[in-house]
Amino acid sequence: MKTLYLLRHAKSSWSFDELSDQERPLNDRGRTDAPRMGQALCKREIELDLLVSSPAVRALSTAVLVAREIGYPHEKIVVERNIYEASVEDILSIIHQLPDSAQSVMLVGHNPTFTDVVNTLGSAGTTPLLEMPTAAVACLRFECERWEEVSRENAEFYFYDFPKDGK
């Protein structure tokens, strides 16, 4: 069985006009929500074999903050440039090329693509997500041995979570 976590980056700042989209940092809420989601994942006792992030500052910062909470070494985070501005097909290609030695993988990236990937892979009968809010995570499990076999047909939508005010 393979387990995939798709984590949308936490809330980013639009306060710096001089920065490119890729350079935008997290804002105060993002710096609060990312660890909060890491703590929620820690309560679920998840253990990652691999954490892969978009190179965008907001995504990589989210990955580091979540990794810290779940005990994943931040120096082992893999930066995958193709997650940034990826299409659904690009993300599926990245998933299909993941190392089979990794049973549990988290990708950290962007919307609307991550919502679309969840809806594309989500098991039949699952209510489609309208939009993953910032710092939301969706977990899918796949009844297969190799990542290249991941598909809607062998998928199980396991859980979905996002930061809630006051939690």
Automatic annotation (TrEMBL):
Name of the protein in question: Histidine phosphatase family protein
InterPro entries: His_Pase_superF_clade-1, His_PPase_superfam
Superkingdom, natural source: Bacteria
